[in-house]
Amino acid sequence: MDAKSIYFADEFRSFMKSAQGLTDDDFKKIMPDIKVKILNSNDKDPIKIFYSIMDFISQNWHKQTPAPVHADWHHFIVPGVLLAALRNAGYEVTDKDIEEGMQRGEKFFGGSCGFAGTCGGAYGAGITLSIFYKINPLHDEKRSEIMEIVSDILKEIAKYKRRCCKRSSLIAVKKVIDYLNNKNIDKIQIAEHIRCKWCQINKMCLGKDCVFNMQ
Questions:
Q1: Counting Cβ atoms within 10 Å, is residue 47 exposed (0-12), middle (13-18) or buried (19+)?
Q2: How many domains does the chain have?
Q3: How confident is the model at residue 215 (pLDDT cuts 50, 70, 90)?
């Protein structure tokens, strides 16, 4: 069966996991540890936290095959690393806020970029801003503003035709920091030039056509 011919979400996810010799339990085993790692981070740079989380996953992945490049955990890692960096920079963000952000992100189903026309990375950016500004559906202006930011992030992600959870996550994190810096929330910065560390293990990598390509 050709994976491209499967448009039912659950069937596609089952097919892709089976093709890699993986099950839902394989992912569930490591996810609590990822959350603890994010909560215990002390860096003010969300990109550095993101890299450290990806390294942690690679080093602690319990299967003999490499950890998947594309996985649902990116949906909660994006708000997790952003909110953790904001907390570490001294802004009014609590551990409960970070846990709330990761909980919301975890509920967003995998493959949403293809099955719903939206990306978990952009969704995580929206979660971050709504929690940082303490927004709910009753806040008119800020709600609309956050939706516009998420829309802009989706447009940037959509420029690249081939999926990549790492690229989408990095775009989302960078865009949120750019937005916050423009709002004079500047104690949180991205210190280093963003470069992808996973192109060699991503069979769908765009190579030099990716904004984060190392070449």
A1: buried
A2: 1
A3: low
